[in-house]
Input
Amino acid sequence: MTDADLGWIAFFVVCNVLGVEAFRAAMTLPFEKALLPGILTVPLVGLTAFGMTCVLSAWQEQERDE
Output
């Protein structure tokens, strides 16, 4: 596994944790305070999906090289 692969894994984990926390805040806070976390949830979910796509692509490439 290369450093770039580890970077994508770290990116995925960070985006996933932030997305979960933003979603939790959006669901548990009153509406006035939940607006920003609710808005931030959408791009964080997209970034998480992008990170997972890159991780899976790197793993598939590594399997082809073996």
In short: Residues 5 and 58 are 6 Å apart (CA to CA). The mean pLDDT is 89. Helices lie at 3-28, 31-65. The first helix runs from residue 3 to 28.
